[in-house]
Amino acid sequence: MIFNDIPVIIPAYKPNDNLINLVSDLSENGFSKIIIVDDGNGPQMAGFFEHIEQKFNATILHHSVNLGYGRSLKTAFNHALLNCDDLKGCIISDCNGIYKISDICKCARLLADNPESLILTNRDKSQSEIKLSNKITNTIFTYSYRFLFGLTVNDSQSILKGIPAKYMKKLLKVIGEGYSFDTNIIVYTKNYHIDVIETDLETSFSSRKKTEKYRTLRESFFIYVNFATYMLISIWATLVDIILFTLLCTVLGRFSLLGRHQIYIYISTIIARIISATMSYNFNYRFVFKKKHGKKETFKRFVIVAGCQMLISAILVSTIHRYVGGEEVLIKIPTDFVLFFVAYQFNRRFVFKR
Question: Domains, the chain, ranges and CATH?
Fold first, then answer.
């Protein structure tokens, strides 16, 4: 199969002869367009890239200094979009020869058949030599993507991907100059409504390079920073909520009329939650879910979720206090802690859906 409309993009920093072998295999297997980004390797590597350019008719794009993995991809995306006719998309591969040529061809065929979808790859993890720590790390990432972003990604650190042309245009404006951009490629499929197809590879997960250790650290920071921000905002809003709830319970609980059936608990919960939820909404809108429009619509949905959360909290606290007794606030804290995780999912999937 000839892939005239699907170039292979290879960011290259400190490459070796594995890159030459890879380009040779790609040329022999029908890839007529190969774009390599020399990411600031310097004059000492000029002859190396010139050899590849002349022998295999590859396109070499140069950075005068090392600008990072994400910037290299954007440089190549822009070149491909401007210079490749009838572009269906591109394949991203590494410069170290990790992936088998059969897997690269498989990814390209999938992209050719599904030119509107992002193609993700899942390396073989059945080999016994794979370290237990690597398996655990990958499992944590898999469930983190599912919980935080609603995405099923079985091998988030696999570089080999197929990017549709329309998504390449969108990605030019997506933040990330280093390896965080590789994570953004996956995460932003939600923003731009890009379908995701995942395919299994023959390439072993144990063939990963040392650079992936650094990618793991950076990716860990990126995928948890939004959740950590959400948690900090929620903690701050919860403190405001609890302080107001405690003060209101102290004042309103003195009135015998309001003390019947724990009515004062409902009133205290409503007033405290309206104030804390309004603050929480504004910060989540701007800093966590990063919505740029549709504030009126998202606010309506937020009110529904916050209202349900408030009602459930009030019912649970009131019921438990009625049968168990004790301080209302000591019942409210663990109750709201559980509701916090439930609310995050509703906020992500319903309120601030992309």
Answer: 8-209 (3.90.550.10), 224-351 (no CATH)
Long-range contacts of 326-329 (CB under 8 A, 24+ apart): 328/245, 328/246, 328/249, 328/265, 329/242, 329/245, 329/246, 329/249
CB–CB of 40/67 below 8 Å?
Answer: yes
Q: Is the separation of the CB atoms in 91 and 9 below 8 Å?
A: yes
- In whole angstroms, how far apart are CA 336 and each of 187, 240, 314, 340? 28, 13, 10, 6
User: Is 276 within 8 Å of 241 (Cβ atoms)?
Assistant: yes
pLDDT tens-digit readout, 264-292: 777 888 888 788 888 877 777 766 665 55
Q: Strand 161-164 and strand 89-92: pairing?
A: antiparallel
pLDDT in tens, 18-36: 999 999 999 999 999 999 9
Predicted structure pTM score = 0.69
The answer to whether 59 and 32 are in contact (CB under 8 A) is no
Amino acid at 211: T
Return the top range by mean pLDDT from 133-142, 157-166, 189-198: 157-166
